[in-house]
From TrEMBL:
Binding of Fe(3+) 1, residues: 73, 351, 385, 550
Transmembrane segments: none
Broad class of the protein's primary localization: secreted
Stated family: Belongs to the transferrin family.
Protein name: Serotransferrin
Subunit structure: Monomer.
Binding site for hydrogencarbonate: 101, 410, 414, 416-417
Lineage: Eukaryota, Metazoa, Chordata, Craniata, Vertebrata
Domain Transferrin-like: 1-295, 304-614
Gene Ontology process terms (BP): antibacterial humoral response; iron ion transport
Protein localization: Secreted
């Protein structure tokens, strides 16, 4: 099997917790792998080798803690037919249960309905395939049980040199020799000098040349990855493996085999982003293929499923009149983005900084919060707001005296609370981050062990508060209202928020905690007036940036359902935009309506705003972990 040139390190198996250990107990599946593993252990003394008969046994061993890790695979002729006409044709596959030869093609065809299969309760998937193709060569499958799936083979139908048509090269040879009408292989198995003789069958029913494989493939096959329990110290595993020279890790000739433990074609290990789960690693097409081959079918939805962040949002969502949506709960915006990608939810409202992250994960903004009542009926300029830095009047805090102060932020990587002030403060300064610029702060979603969680209050419990510094309404200082409260209660000395918040939460208009606050007690500071503070109403001339309003994000295929559901919901009442204690639950409480957005992501955010975000990533903390996970290129193409 052709494998991507970089072997990747990550945690893809969630299992029961167990105590950590200094030894890395590696599970291997053959005597040849055991020999290589024992040799590698001479290079890294912490490595300990454990032999199991199969990958399934290795995974079971990892689950119960008897092992810590193992490597695992990610799980054409000129005739006149397409992908929908394969029934009754002859086929050749690299091998049984391989990604490119079995999992991807069979899984995708089951998911698309090309192969009719009602699931394992109906019959084994192998039987469904044997009834679909007239004859095949699928090395490794049971010749006794499914003889026609070995009928096209030229050998013993095994995954060995005893079968002429084993592997990508063998499957292609099977096609070339005329023993099959279609072959399932990785695109780079087809030699360049014969590519003009073959065509690819695309999932949309079309055919393309081999050179057009990027626009015509069944799925991208993930590279080999190291798997372990979620609680395992992956950093330690990575450090142990990095002690071993690449020439030893990625070579198997000495041990009488090929691709033992790691791919021989790999040249280095790369650690995966922490946010990477099985869906993000495998990518959607491959994930669908695996669901198809397991007989897992998507259940029909009666309603749009909204992603509520934390218990308070879930409660509001559940209690909306006439139940326009079903509600699913997540712990953070990042988790909502993952749920929407996995189709476990359909939509959530987020700020511009999070719209950018969602866009990198393939989601789109479809509706925008509008706080101007007149524009709800007349239309006009796209909704936006000013980001301001608010201080208490008479505090002596100015823009030039900001370093070392205590700060209040709406949340990590959020627009007003993080991205904009990060750009304004550190945008032109090397090695500057908000972490080292301020003495301490509250930025919900930050690492709990950093100074940016030190001022957070959680749910208000005295001890054992799991909500402290969580990026949800369970944290009192989360969001616009939370950052302003952090300042109002003198916990922090500056708050980075939306320009309307001071007016919305003072002079008797706010919730209980804000009932005695006066708007005149708060002022703005900005780079344009570095040595003074100005009235909170002067945001048009003293702000950090003007940015896009919060938007509803979803998958492109769910756009119509989400837009229609929200339009119908807001037409009935405005309870969508009302929250107990004005906590901006689900939507910002000052929202007057949601307006449909038809602009592409780049136009919606504007190039100026995107440049600001990307510049802050370059100079400050780097790309968010979820962006890294969503844009990870770890695949080769199976056709």
């Amino acid at each position: 099997m052709n494998i991507l040139l970089i072997s990747l390190l990550g945690c893809l198996v969630v299992a029961l917790p167990s105590a950590g250990a200094q030894k890395v107990k590696w599970c291997v599946k053959s005597q040849n792998e055991l020999m290589k593993c024992q040799y590698l252990a001479t290079k890294a003394p912490e490595l300990e080798c454990h032999l199991k008969p199969s990958m399934t046994d290795c995974m079971s061993s990892i689950k119960v803690g008897d092992a810590d890790a193992a490597t695992a695979d990610g799980e054409h002729s000129d005739a006149n037919f397409n992908i929908n006409d394969l029934k009754g044709k002859t086929s050749c596959h690299s091998s049984y249960q391989s990604p490119e030869g079995w999992n991807i093609p069979i899984g995708r065809m089951v998911a698309k309905g090309v192969i009719t299969w009602d699931g394992p309760e109906d019959m084994p998937i192998e039987k469904a395939v044997s009834q679909f193709f007239s004859s095949s060569c699928i090395p490794g499958i049971s010749k006794a049980q499914y003889p026609n799936l070995c009928q096209a083979c030229q050998g013993d139908c095994s995954c060995s040199q005893n079968e002429k048509y084993y592997g990508d090269e063998g499957a292609l040879l099977c096609l070339i020799n005329g023993d099959a009408q279609v072959a399932f292989v990785c695109h780079n198995a087809i030699p360049e000098n014969v590519r003009q003789n073959y065509q690819l069958l695309c999932m949309d029913g079309s055919r393309k040349s081999v050179e057009e494989y990027k626009d015509c493939y069944l799925a991208k096959e993930p590279a080999r990855a190291v798997i372990s329990r979620k609680d395992t110290d992956s950093d330690h595993i990575y450090k142990v493996l990095k002690q071993i020279p690449a020439t030893d890790l990625f070579s198997s000739d000495t041990f009488g085999g090929k691709d033992l433990i790691f791919s021989d074609s790999a040249f280095e290990l790369m650690e995966l982003p922490k946010s990477t789960d099985s869906f993000l690693y495998l990518k959607e097409d491959y994930y669908k293929a695996m669901q198809g081959i397991k007989g897992i079918k998507a259940l029909p939805k009666n309603k749009v499923e909204w992603c509520a962040i934390g218990h308070q949002e879930k409660t509001k969502c559940d209690n909306l009149p006439d139940s326009p949506m079903d509600c699913r709960m997540a712990s953070s915006v990042d988790e909502c983005i993952k749920k929407i990608m996995r189709r476990e939810a359909d939509a959530v409202a987020v700020d511009g900084g999070q719209v950018y992250i969602a866009g990198k994960c393939g989601l789109v903004p479809v509706m925008v919060e509008q706080s101007d009542e007149q524009k709800c009926t007349e239309g006009g300029e796209a909704a936006s707001y000013y980001v301001v830095a608010v201080v208490r009047k008479g505090s002596g805090v100015t823009w030039n005296k900001l370093r070392g102060r205590k700060s209040c932020h709406t949340g990590l990587n959020r627009n007003a609370g993080w991205k904009v002030p990060d750009s304004a403060i550190c945008g032109k300064t090397h090695d500057c981050t908000l972490y080292n610029f301020f003495s301490k702060g509250c930025a919900p979603g930050a690492d709990p062990n950093t100074n940016m969680c030190e001022l957070c209050k959680g749910s208000g419990k005295a001890v054992g508060d799991e909500s402290k510094c969580k990026a949800s309404s369970d944290e009192i200082y989360y969001g616009y209202d939370g950052a302003f409260r952090c300042l109002a209660e003198t916990t922090g000395e500056v708050a980075f928020i939306k320009h309307t918040i001071v007016g919305d939460y003072t002079d008797g208009k706010g919730p209980g905690w804000a009932k005695d606050l006066k708007s005149d007690d708060f002022e703005l500071i900005c780079p344009e007036s570095p040595d003074i503070s100005v009235k909170h109403t002067e945001f048009a001339t003293c702000s950090l940036a003007k940015v896009p309003a919060h938007a509803v994000i979803t998958r492109e295929d769910a756009r119509t359902d989400v837009v229609n559901t929200l339009k119908a919901a807001q037409a009935k009442s405005n309870v969508l935009f009302k929250s107990e204690n004005e906590r901006n639950l689900l939507f910002t409480d000052t929202t007057k309506c949601l307006q449909e957005n038809t602009k592409p992501l780049n136009e919606f955010l504007t190039s100026k705003y995107i440049d600001m975000i990307e510049r802050s990533y370059t100079i400050a903390q780097g790309e968010p972990d979820l962006v890294k996970a969503c844009t990870l290129d770890n695949c080769v193409v199976a056709t």
